[in-house]
Amino acid sequence: MATEGGYKLEQQHGKSRVRVSRVWRRPGSDGGDLVVEWSVGVSLLSDCLPAYLSGDNSSIVATDTMKNTVYAKAKECTEVVSMESFAIILAKHFITFYPQVTTAIVNIVEKPWERVTLDGQPHVHGFKLGSEKHVTEVTLKKCGALSLIAGVQGLALLKTTQSGFEGFVRDRYTILPDTRERMLATEVAASWRYQFENISNIPAKPFCFSQRYQEVKKVLVDTFFGPPNVGVYSPSVQNTLYLMAKAVLDRYLCWTVSRFHDIAFVQLNMPNLHFLPVNLSSKDNPSIVKFADDVFLPTDEPHGTIQATLSRARSKL
Ligand SMILES: O=c1[nH]c(=O)c2[nH]c(=O)[nH]c2[nH]1
C-alpha cells in the first residue's frame, strides 16, 4: 500500500486462467503416462507505483511474462509434481527473481482427468473427465511467510434417506414442516490450510499433497454418508458439515500426535440443494400424485447456503 497526494493506493496485477497441460511420458512403466490440465492464476504485489502514478512502466513485470513463466516452469518439471508444489515453485520464482515483487499469489484449478479402466485394466494413455475439481492457492511473501491452501470444488453428494430437519424456529412466516425423512443433496466446496507457515517448513522430502487431497476427500465423503449398509442420520446440513470438518482435523490429530498438525483449518461450503416433495391434485382428481417419499422436484434455485470454518482452539498450556 502507498500513500500519495492524499490518496491510498493498494494494487496488484497478474494473469488469470493460464491454461497449461503437462504430460509425463513413462513408456514401458506399469502406471502409464501421467497428464494434468491446470488453469493457473498469478497475481503479484510489487513496487510499481510509477506505472499507476505517471505511466512509467519500468518496474512492471508484464502479465504476458507471467503467462510464459507458467509454461517455462511446467517444462522444467521433468519429475511429476503436485499442483500445490507447482504453485510453490511459481510463487518462489516470482518473489526471488524480481526485487520489486513483495508477494506472489498463485492459484490453480485442476481439470479432473482420470485414467480410464477398460475391462478392469487401467489404460496406459487414456483419460476421461471426472467431476469434482482439486484447487490450490499459495500466497508467498518475500520474507518466506507462506499460506498454502488446498481444496475441492463441486463434490456433489446425495443421500436418499437418513436426513431430517426439525425443531427450528417457528414464527408466522414458517410453513416448513418438521421432518425426519428427506433427501439430502449438496455440492461440497472445501478448503483447508496446511500448517506450513514458512517456505522453510515445507519438508525436504516432497510432501505428498496429492495423496493428502485424496485422503481429505475420502474423510469428507465417508463422514457425509456413514457406513455403507446403514448410513448415519443427519439432523441438519449444519451438523453434518461440522462432523465432516471435525473428522478432517481429528484424522490428522491422531496421525501427528507428537508432531505438528499439518492441517490448520477446514472451511466448508455446503449448499442445501432441495428435493421438494411432489403432490399434484386437480378439482376432479384430488390425488394425481400423492407424495410417499418417492417423487421429488429437485431444485437449486433457491437453495440453502450453509458454510463454516473449523480450526483448533489454541491450547492454554
Ligand atoms: O439442514 C437444514 N438446515 C437449515 O438451516 C435449513 N433451513 C431450511 O429451510 N431447511 C434446512 N435444512
Automatic annotation (TrEMBL):
Where do the annotations place urate binding? T63, D64, F165, R182, V237, Q238, N272
| Residues forming the catalytic site | K15 (charge relay system), T63 (charge relay system), H274 (charge relay system)
Q: Reaction(s) catalyzed by this protein?
A: urate + O2 + H2O = 5-hydroxyisourate + H2O2
Q: What InterPro entries does UniProt report for this protein, alphabetically? A: Uricase, Uricase_CS
Q: Where does 5-hydroxyisourate bind?
A: T63, D64, F165, R182, V237, Q238, N272
According to its UniProt record, the EC number is 1.7.3.3
Give a yes or no for keyword Oxidoreductase in this entry: yes
**Residues reported in the UniProt entry to bind O2:** T63, N272
Localisation per UniProt entry: Peroxisome
Q: Which domain of life is it from?
A: Eukaryota
What is the top EC class of this enzyme, as a single word? oxidoreductase
The principal localisation class reads: other
Which Gene Ontology BP annotations are present?
purine nucleobase catabolic process; urate catabolic process
Instruction: Give an example GO molecular function.
Output: urate oxidase activity
- Please give the SUPFAM superfamilies that the UniProt record associates with this protein: Tetrahydrobiopterin biosynthesis enzymes-like
Provide this UniProt record's keywords sorted from A to Z.
Oxidoreductase, Peroxisome, Purine metabolism
**Sorted alphabetically, which CDD domains does this protein's record hold?**
Uricase
UniProt GO cellular component terms: peroxisome
State the pathway, as annotated in the record. Purine metabolism; urate degradation; (S)-allantoin from urate: step 1/3
Q: According to its UniProt record, which protein family does this protein belong to? A: Belongs to the uricase family.
> Function, please?
Catalyzes the oxidation of uric acid to 5-hydroxyisourate, which is further processed to form (S)-allantoin.
Tell me what this protein is called: Uricase
